[in-house]
Amino acid sequence: MPPEERPDRIALLRAHTLHVTPQRLAVLGALSAAPHSTADDIYRHVLGRLGTVSRQAVYDALAALTDRGLLRRIEPAGSPARYEDRVGDNHHHLVCRTCGRMVDVDCAVGEAPCLAPADGAGYEIDEAEVIYWGRCADCAAARTLAENTPKQERDRRV
Fold first, then answer.
1. For residue 95, what pLDDT is reported?
2. Is the CB of residue 39 less than 8 Å from the CB of residue 59?
3. Which residues face 38 on adjacent strands?
4. Predicted local distance difference test score (pLDDT) of residue 136
5. At what angle do helices 55-67 and 22-33 cross, to 10 degrees?
6. Please, which residues bridge with residue 96 across strands?
7. What is the band of 75 on the pLDDT scale with cuts at 50, 70, 90?
8. Closest alpha carbon to 6 in 91, 85, 88
9. C-alpha 75: how far from chain center
């Protein structure tokens, strides 16, 4: 049985009253293997698994899975939307400004929504979405190295 056809994924789709299709199973498999992927990343993964699939079929699967709460769509400013299969726990994200790497970070202060505005304007708030921006360890180290390398040596490398 191919990895995307795992019984737990099939049961998950059925429990959310979704038809079990190769595209949906492959999308779930792609996000299990590589959380925070873009739609294009997922499409390439699914294409590699199934051999033939339309980009629209992958977008449709992403939409259906997101609408049913099986996937979460994350939209960092200045970046394409990304998807993940970690849902329902109101966690947050760290994004590297240099390479774009994204990782999960647990809720800042306790249970969902874990952050509350000073004035909720009458809303019933159930989630807070926080994106922390900075540089990952690899990019920070590379930047420090570049800043500490004499200009003559940097020019020689070019």
1. 93
2. yes
3. 82
4. 92
5. 80
6. 134
7. very high
8. 85
9. 9
Q: Tell me: the pLDDT tens digits for 82-122?
A: 999 999 887 889 999 999 899 998 876 666 666 777 788 88
Percent helix, strand, coil in the chain (nearest 5)? 45, 15, 45
User: Residues with Cβ < 8 Å from 81, sequence gap 6 or more?
Assistant: 38, 39, 73, 74, 75
Residue-averaged pLDDT of the chain: 87
In this structure, the number of other CB atoms found within 10 A of the CB of residue 24 comes to 25
Cα dihedral 104, 76, 144, 106 in deg (nearest 10)? -20
Residue recorded with tokens 């990343």? 41
The per-residue DSSP string of 63-129 comes to HHHHHTTSSEEE--TTS--EEES--SS--EEEEETTT--EEEE--TTSSTT----S--TT-------
Q: Is 18 left (phi over 0), alpha (psi -120 to 50) or beta?
A: beta
Question: How many C-beta atoms surround the C-beta of residue 154 within 10 A?
Answer: 10
Report the distance separating Cα 68 and Cα 30, nearest Å.
Answer: 18
